[in-house]
Amino acid sequence: MAKSPEQQHPVQAFGWAARDTSGVLSPFKFSRRATGDKDVTFKVLYCGICHSDLHQIKNEWGFTNYPCLPGHEIVGVVTEVGNEVKKFKAGDRVGVGCLVGSCHNCEDCSNNLENYCPKLIFTYCSTYFDGTPTYGGYSDLMVVDEHFAIAIPENLPLDGCAPLLCAGITTYSPLRHFGLDKPGMHVGVVGLGGLGHAAVKFAKAFGVKVTVISTSPGKKQEATERLGADSFLVSRDHAQMQAAMGTMDGIIDTVSAQHPLLPLIGLLKSHGKLVMVGAPEKPLELPVFPLLMGRKIVAGSCIGGIKETQEMIDFAGKHNITADIELIPMDYVNTAMERLVKADVRYRFVIDIGNTLKAA
Q1: Alpha carbon distance 157, 274 (integer Å)
Q2: How far apart are CA 258 and CA 266, in angstroms?
Q3: Between 167-177 and 194-205, two packed helices, what is the crossing angle to 10 degrees?
Q4: Per the database record, which ranges form the Enoyl reductase (ER) domain (predicted)?
Q5: What is the helix (H) or strand (E) element at residue 213, kind and residue range?
Q6: Total number of domains constituting the chain
Q7: Is the C-alpha dihedral spanning 190, 178, 266, 269 positive or negative?
Q8: For 254, phi and psi rounded to 5 degrees?
Q9: Which of 25, 52, 95, 108 is in Cβ range 3.0-4.6 Å of 113 for a Cys bridge?
């Protein structure tokens, strides 16, 4: 007979999980493994709510295993380390993003691209090496192989830093990889949500000219005055879009819903790059002719490797970049999910796990 979540490991843990496709989260008792030789155990203080958490708890991508305990923007303080751990000690500030395991042997792993490992293990809704399910950060403690733990700079507030472990690296990595990090370049950011506002902050820190492209005219002031974008385009305004045709070196598209790509491809210069980082659940239509006529690229990018995630956090520390957050108690999480569906958040919900997660 299969063991219950509470009996799978020796250390009792507590969090909030969804039990079915309703996506409703409620208190959940489970267990974590004891601290192994190379493990870091930490008390979770804050965990961001990512749009992918919403997709997963409702099984909208089709591969959710229940019970599903989400959360992959996790920060806290180390309580114990294994005897072979070199990078961390008790009391250190630490974070975990979307990954807790990979094969360490494939070409991607050997190039510090664990995020593209065919055997990568996600922080939740995956199966760990020992066959037990992975549970995420909407919980009181985490145990992780030190390789997948990120050191958090002392000057960054933990709550505002948490979303960088997904939203931050998801936008930082394509800016770097596709060479859209050179001062004076012009980069568009589609969508001004959790990912989009991080993309604006990182691009501006690289010295890039940034245009926010949004369906909501009401976000203009926010984008330009508060986040420092250089300009703002309403994607439904044909005249505005027409005037900006062929002006951008690259575009980071953060939108997770159905939307047309043709107008975005039109904004690119010849050899421009449209990089998709949002994950719509249905396929988008891709017109090929406008790609041919300017040797343009449509690409995808998924989070980043561990080395690059550390580099991103260190860069954020140097430039004082944090996410703009709304801090919520644990028992508000279902309301937060309803608001997330309506994009009613600026720009990331972060759960105050340390102060509000109470064992049932």
Answers
A1: 32
A2: 18
A3: 50
A4: 23-351
A5: strand 209-214
A6: 2
A7: positive
A8: -100, 5
A9: 108
User: Rounded to an integer, what distance in angstroms lies between the CA atom of residue 120 and that of residue 101?
Assistant: 6
Alpha-carbon distances, residue 49 vs 74, 87, 136, 225, 359 (angstroms)? 10, 27, 11, 26, 20
Contact 250, 187 (CB under 8 A): yes
What is the β-pairing status of strands 348-351 and 39-48? antiparallel
Read out DSSP for 59-120? TSSS---SSB-----EEEEEEEE-TT--S--TT-EEEE-SEEE--S-SHHHHTT-GGG-TT-
- What's the DSSP call for residue 234? E
Dihedral angle computed from the Cα positions of residues 40, 44, 46 and 48, in that order, rounded to the nearest 10 degrees: 70
Predicted TM-score (pTM) of this structure: 0.96
pLDDT tens digits along 265-320: 999 999 999 999 998 878 999 999 999 999 999 999 999 999 999 999 999 999 99
Same domain, 161 and 171: no
Are 171 and 150 in the same domain? no
Which domain, by its residues, includes 264? 167-300
CATH code of 254's domain: 3.40.50.720
Helix (H) / strand (E) containing 240: helix 238-243
The per-residue pLDDT for range 207-239, each reduced to its tens digit, is: 999 999 999 999 999 999 999 999 999 999 999
Statement to judge: residues 204 and 343 lie in one domain: no
